[in-house]
From TrEMBL:
<dbReference type="InterPro" id="IPR036259">
    <property type="entry name" value="MFS_trans_sf"/>
</dbReference>
<feature type="signal peptide">
    <location>
        <begin position="1"/>
        <end position="26"/>
    </location>
</feature>
<feature type="transmembrane region" description="Helical">
    <location>
        <begin position="194"/>
        <end position="215"/>
    </location>
</feature>
<feature type="transmembrane region" description="Helical">
    <location>
        <begin position="235"/>
        <end position="256"/>
    </location>
</feature>
<feature type="transmembrane region" description="Helical">
    <location>
        <begin position="160"/>
        <end position="182"/>
    </location>
</feature>
<feature type="transmembrane region" description="Helical">
    <location>
        <begin position="44"/>
        <end position="66"/>
    </location>
</feature>
<feature type="transmembrane region" description="Helical">
    <location>
        <begin position="268"/>
        <end position="285"/>
    </location>
</feature>
<keyword id="KW-0812">Transmembrane</keyword>
<keyword id="KW-0472">Membrane</keyword>
<dbReference type="GO" id="GO:0016020">
    <property type="term" value="C:membrane"/>
</dbReference>
<dbReference type="GO" id="GO:0022857">
    <property type="term" value="F:transmembrane transporter activity"/>
</dbReference>
<feature type="transmembrane region" description="Helical">
    <location>
        <begin position="323"/>
        <end position="347"/>
    </location>
</feature>
<keyword id="KW-0732">Signal</keyword>
<feature type="transmembrane region" description="Helical">
    <location>
        <begin position="134"/>
        <end position="154"/>
    </location>
</feature>
<dbReference type="InterPro" id="IPR020846">
    <property type="entry name" value="MFS_dom"/>
</dbReference>
<keyword id="KW-1133">Transmembrane helix</keyword>
<protein>
    <submittedName>
        <fullName>MFS transporter</fullName>
    </submittedName>
</protein>
Length: 384
């Protein structure tokens, strides 16, 4: 009989595998651009194919998980991701790369939703806070995936061989998770409808997730520009902003479950939103890039546990079946990621990047103010 500990470990492994696969694509981007000969504008359109694949797959995943259980969906999508990933290293034309990115996005999107549905069910059975730790393993996977791929390429390993090694590593992690993933859907999910529009608390939770994903995407896409545009950092140092953000987020998530147990999810949303807003303001007003680095770290610390708490709230709300709610919230959140770079770029072009980041600070204040409405009683500490 599968124990609670085995279920928790297998869920963490699923998150680790997803983080590894998703982040390993980043070091391949320059190679893909050189191989296909596309310009930056065309590359942006190609990268959009990954997001489109995810967005189309996510709404369907909740229905599949409710019908067939999380284990089948996680393993099928995860292993499908492993099969598609090497194609990103060999696609010779823009059209073939677009198709590979679409399929990669679809498998990643399916895996993302299915593992979060599993996480919600496991957390409910545990009757305590686990979601931040699960998402912390995704962040660790991101560091492992991008770092290992970068090291292999730096060491001179062939691009295709490196992608096969990474795909094999992800597959091994998934195989290790497989025996203890949830085989059967939750009894309350078996009669879930095939489709349902987001409603009630799900709409608010999805909107807040979208704001946080927008902020995270802005740091990923624009932190280097913020640090280098004033001449304080060189182009080679520009990545330090996102590194500070990512490390702080990982540390925050790995310690988040204890904070949720102690303060409750709603208080953590309040504190996290305020912390992230302060971080954005520091980045905007910093007199030196080194102080701006501290601001990016504060953003990572504040944002680290907001999305995990919101996913826990999605599993606790009564307006929709949990599987459909997770699908809807993930889809709405990813829409924020897709819209983010263009929206920030538009505002930055019209009014300046500092004002765009100040707007993100306002968004984080909105998250902080909405915490009590979005997750009344969510999180381990608030349930007890």
């Amino acid at each position: 009989m599968t124990t609670g500990l085995q279920k928790r470990v297998s869920t963490r492994l699923a998150f680790l595998a997803a983080g590894m696969a998703m982040s390993a694509w980043a070091p391949l981007v320059p190679f893909a651009q050189a191989r296909t000969g596309v310009q930056q504008g065309e590359l942006g359109l190609l990268l959009l194919c990954l997001g489109i694949g995810s967005l189309l797959a996510m709404p369907v995943t909740g229905v599949l998980a409710a019908r067939f259980g999380c284990r089948r969906i996680i393993l099928a999508s995860g292993l499908g991701c492993c099969l598609v990933f090497p194609l990103l290293a060999i696609a010779p034309t823009a059209w073939s790369l677009a198709l590979a990115l679409f399929l990669f996005g679809a498998t990643i999107g399916t895996l993302d939703v299915a593992m979060n549905i599993q996480a919600v069910i496991v957390e409910k059975e545990y009757d305590g806070a686990l979601m931040s730790g699960f998402h912390g393993l995704f962040s660790v996977g991101g560091i492992v995936g991008a770092g290992s791929m970068t090291l292999m390429l730096w060491a001179g390993l062939d691009l295709v061989v490196a992608s096969l090694v990474l795909a094999a590593a992800v597959a091994l992690v998934l195989i290790g998770a497989g025996p203890y993933l949830l085989r059967d859907p939750a009894p309350s999910e078996r009669d879930a409808p095939l489709f349902a529009l987001p409603r009630g608390a799900v709409v608010l939770i999805g909107a807040l997730c979208s704001l946080v994903f927008l902020a995270e995407g802005a740091v990923l896409d624009w932190s280097a520009v913020m640090l280098t545009s004033g001449g304080g950092f060189t182009a080679g140092q520009g990545g330090l902003g996102y590194a500070a953000f990512a490390v702080a987020m990982t540390v925050g998530r790995l310690n988040g479950d204890r904070m949720v147990q102690r303060w409750g999810g709603h208080r953590l949303l309040l504190l996290g939103g305020l912390c992230a807003a302060l971080g954005f303001l520091i980045v905007v007003l910093a007199p030196s890039p080194w102080i701006a680095l501290a601001g990016f770290a504060l953003i990572g610390t504040g944002a680290s546990n907001i999305v995990p708490v919101l996913f826990s709230a999605a599993g606790s709300q009564k307006d929709m079946p949990a599987s459909l709610a997770i699908s809807a919230i993930t889809t709405i959140g990813y829409a924020g990621i897709l819209a983010g770079p263009g929206l920030i770029g538009f505002v930055a072009h019209a009014f300046g990047l500092q004002l765009a980041f100040a707007g993100l600070a306002c968004g984080m204040l909105l998250v902080a103010a909405s915490g009590w409405s979005a997750v009344p009683g969510a999180g381990g500490g608030a349930r007890r």
